[in-house]
Design brief:
Number of strands: 16
Radius of gyration: 19 Å
Number of domains: 2
CATH topology of the largest domain: D-amino Acid Aminotransferase, Chain A, domain 1
CATH superfamily of the largest domain: ATP-grasp fold, B domain
CATH architecture of the largest domain: 2-Layer Sandwich
CATH class of the largest domain: Alpha Beta
Strand content: 25-35%
Helix content: 25-40%
Order of helices and strands: EEEEEHEHEEEHEEEEHHEEEHH
Length: 302
């Protein structure tokens, strides 16, 4: 299987843990690599097909939810030649030939001014929310009823924003703090759009055997209009659980990089870089989970 860890194109705009973004002049090219991160460190190995899954699944959801919330997607890059014909002259002073690896794992998007808030919707108590509840009886600073168990479905989905950190951990903030940062009207708009997306996606995925326990989305501004940006409802930005195996009161079988996290913990890694190399069976298991999530949600094979 093809494996892409590094990209090397002109006009690098931003390099994240997984995605590389390039400036096309009036738009951006986002390439989803096969890099994988865990506990805030990028691992030395990659996960075959991961970047293709992330890109194709984001594109699927952007198109599926466009009637609910506008987004930044201009086009999915199905082949390098289309990108060459459309954008080759905009990359540098002369014609630029994009490499074949951009196909299927990249998209052209609108330039937007990023709003530096991670908008998180939760329908189940898990992850950081469960850890906070166990310690304090609260979620995002709000008191919750006693007696909840891990992975329990909440009566109503909740909104739990965090800061958007370029490195290190995102930090939870209250909705009141978000309002002070963005203004009350903008904060309420982002909250409403986030929950609209989550409820729609949760119901859609449930019919296909996947529980979306929580998800985080990002927004940007284009001419003061709010758009969904970055990725949308992928195994990297969401907790996807197998509905057939769901049972409240324990951690769940998930379609994401959980095998990676589990192996790193069992291997005794201290979570300080550099991260260790993964064994081949863990890499293969993780690829299978990403591909299965894509297949169940879209009904297509990669």
């Amino acid at each position: 299987m093809e494996l892409l860890l590094e990209t090397d194109l002109p006009n690098l705009f931003y390099r994240g843990k997984v995605r590389d973004t390039y400036d096309l002049g009036d738009s951006l090219l986002i390439i989803a690599t096969d890099r994988i991160s865990a506990f805030d460190s990028v691992l030395p190995c990659g996960i075959p097909d991961k970047g293709v899954v992330l890109n194709q699944l984001s594109a699927f959801w952007f198109e599926k939810t466009a009637h609910l919330v506008p987004n930044h997607l201009i086009a999915v890059v199905d082949d390098a030649q289309w990108l060459n014909n459309t954008y080759g002259e905009k990359v540098c002073s002369g014609y630029y030939s994009f490499p074949d690896y951009v196909a299927r794992r990249s998209m052209v998007v609108k330039k937007a001014e990023r709003i530096d808030i991670e908008c998180v919707a939760r329908g189940y108590i898990s992850g950081a929310a469960w850890a906070e509840y166990q310690e304090k009886g609260t979620v995002n600073g709000v008191s919750f009823p006693k007696g909840l168990v891990e992975s329990e479905k909440l009566t109503e989905p909740i909104f739990t924003p965090t800061t958007k950190a370029d490195s290190g951990h995102d930090e939870p903030i209250t909705i009141d703090e978000m309002k002070r940062l963005l203004g009350e009207e903008r904060a309420e708009e982002l909250t409403e759009k986030t929950m609209r997306i989550y409820r729609y996606a949760h119901d859609y995925a449930m019919e296909r055997g996947i529980i979306i326990a929580d998800t985080k989305v990002e927004f940007g501004l284009v001419n003061d209009r709010v758009l969904l940006i970055d990725e949308l409802l992928t195994p990297d930005s969401s907790r996807f659980w197998d509905a057939s195996l769901y049972q409240a009161g324990r951690s769940q079988s998930s379609f994401d990089k959980q095998p990676v996290r589990d192996w790193l913990v069992q291997a005794g890694w201290d979570k300080e870089p550099p991260a260790p190399m993964l064994p081949e069976d863990v890499i293969a298991q993780t690829t299978d989970r990403y591909r299965e999530a894509y297949h169940r949600l879209t009904g297509k094979e990669l």
